Each structure stands twice: as structure tokens, then as C-alpha cells.
Amino acid sequence: MNTSTSPSLPIPPGHSTAPPLPRIAVLATGGTIAGSAPDAANTSGYQAGVVGVDQLLAAVPALSAVARIAPEQIASVDSKDMAMPLWTTLGQRIDTLLATDDVDGVVVTHGTDTLEETAYLLHLTVKSDKPVVLTAAMRPASALSADGPLNLLNAVTVAAHAAARGQGVLVAFNNRIHSARDVVKTSTYAVDAFQSPEIGALGWVQDGRVEFQRGVVRAHTLASEFTLDAAWPQVEIVTSYAGVSRIAIDALVAAGVRGIVVAGTGNGSIHQSLQQALADAALRGVAVVRSSRVGSGHVMRNGAAADDALGFVSAGSLNPYKARVLLMLALAAGHTAPAALQKVFDTY
Q: Which of 98, 265, 320, 345 gives 20 to 30 Å between its CA and that of 43?
């Protein structure tokens, strides 16, 4: 019996048997991660959004071992100035990129101030199960020990990882992986500025290793009914506090707002003066959603404010800013009755 084997063919120079690295689109929008100050010791007096995406990537040469990068400069704004038209532009570009076979995931560099709102908006509207990961920085690119380069490397590492697929929109920050629904900014200065206070992070990323310790339960992305709409309904946020008047509510109703989210005290409780004004607003067809200013926990339906009688909706565990995002999308989709809106908040 002939036991000889054919000799292996040599690998041509410049070729490899390893599969190609994932292709990750990096979409830059500005923010502190792209900020610059004249003094490297200055982490507050800087100009946000002035460093371009190519310069951001050049500061992280290790990216070449993680993914093939396709950079785009979508905007160059301080995220405190984020607005709905840019949300629409960003979301539509993400959908376009992810619809192609050539892109395996997207990373968005963003400012920290409104990152949680943008992330949740995309979580509800992106129509793909491919990874979308937002990241940012608390120190400008010019600072000593800038945190942006490592956050960017970790975000690309997560976006390139198979376990990130189907998790919805994620936030990679300071070695942790958060769900867009849960994450909030909790510090004005610390590099560990983002947390998921109610149930914790999804997992972690460090030195190229990605580990998810739980999955996302609520509906998102492909399971979400929502799409980006250029005609955003006007929804505003008011706060309940000692001695608050109804002036703001009456002014908003007179201005024609479609919805109001109230940041209530405790379990979404509302000062009696404000509650009466909101009840009057609900009678005029304005959607009213109760959230809490506390920072964690959830607002129980029919708890402090007798929602059924007043026509109010509970935001559950969403903070006021994310509740506003969901309410805008729900109103744009035609959900106006309190019962229909409550089902939306219970679902997403």
C-alpha cells in the first residue's frame, strides 16, 4: 500500500492562509475624544471635535492588528449640541454601511455629554444585527494620559468580535461593555464616567479579550418597530422639585408640544401643582410620561401618580432623557393613546 502523501504547495509571497480581518467602519462625530487644548495638562479648557478621524486612528497603531478600518468624518460637534438632524444622518449612514457585505460592524466616536441618548436612539432604529459600538473620552486627545485611544481600540475590538452580534447597540468605555439601553454618564470628570446603575455592564474588554457576562433582553434593532423620521415630534422634559409651579407646563402646551417627560422625585412622584398641570395637558392630547430624577431604579405604574386616572405613562427604568427618545419615536410611529404608549415603554 502506498502511504506517501503529496507535498504541500508553498504559500506565495505576500499571501496568508489566515482569514481576512473584519472590516469595521469608524464614524467620527466630534466630542472630547477629538478635542484639543494648547496645554497637555488642561483637561477642561479645550475645543471639542477639532481632531479629525484620520488623526484619531493614527494615534492607535494597534488597530491594524484588530480590523481593517474604513474611516468617515460624519460631523465635528461638541455632543452637547447634538440634534435630531444629525441623529438621522448618522443612523441612515450606519444602516447603509451595515447593509453591505463589505462591512462587519460600525464604531461611532462621540462626545460623552449626549452619548447615552444617541446610543439608545440607534439601539431602537438601526436595522441590522451587526455590531454597532459607541465610544468616547473624558480627556481630550491632547491631554496627558488621554483615554480616547484605548477606548477606541477596545470599541473596535468589540465590534470585530462575533459575540457582539445581535446585542444591539453597545457602548465600550473604560474596559466595560454596556447596553445602550442601560448606560448613563455618572461623572463630570472621571475616566470611569459611564455605568449601568440598575443591572450592571454586559461584559468587559481588555488586552484584546472580549467577554459578555449577560445578554440583552428587551427588543432592539431588527426587533424594533421604529425607524428614523425626519419629522421629529416635539417632546420636552420638565422636573418636579420643591415649590415648582405649572408655568413651564402651560407654556409648553401653548407652544404645541406633542409630549412631556417629567423627571419626578423618588418613584416618579410629582408635586401637586405640576401634577394638575400635567393632567390638564393630558386632557388636551399631550402624552405625559413619568420618569425619575433619582438616577437608578424604576418608576412603578400607578404608583405615586395614579396613572390610569390621569392618563400618564410610566417610563419604567428609563431615565428622562432616554424616555424622551422613546416617546419621540413612539409618537412618530402613531402611538398616541396612553395604553398604546405604555405598551411601548414596557416593550423597549
A: 320
280-325 pLDDT tens trace = 999 999 999 999 999 999 999 985 558 999 999 999 999 999 999 9
Which CATH topology does 235-347 take? Answer: Rossmann fold (3.40.50)
Q: Is 112 a catalytic residue?
A: yes
Could you tell me where in the chain the CATH 3.40.50.40 domains are found? 235-347
| Residue of 43, 109, 112, 114 marked active site | 112
Annotated ligand binding at 112? The verdict is yes
Answer yes or no: is 79 a known binding residue.
yes
336 assigned ligand-binding residue:
no
Please name which of 129, 138, 137 lies closest in space to residue 155, comparing C-alpha atoms: 137
Name the region of 285 (left: φ>0; alpha: ψ -120 to 50; beta: rest): left
Quick check: is 114 catalytic?
no
Strand partners, 290: 262, 314
- Tell me, rounded to whole angstroms, the distance of Cα 69 from its chain centroid: 21
Q: What grid cell was written down for 86?
A: 444629525
C-alpha cell at 144: 496627558
Query: What phi and psi values does residue 81 have, to the nearest 5 degrees?
Result: -100, 15
The predicted model scores a pTM of: 0.93
Give the active site residue among 29, 32, 43, 157. Answer: 32
The terminus-to-terminus CA distance of the chain in angstroms comes to 67
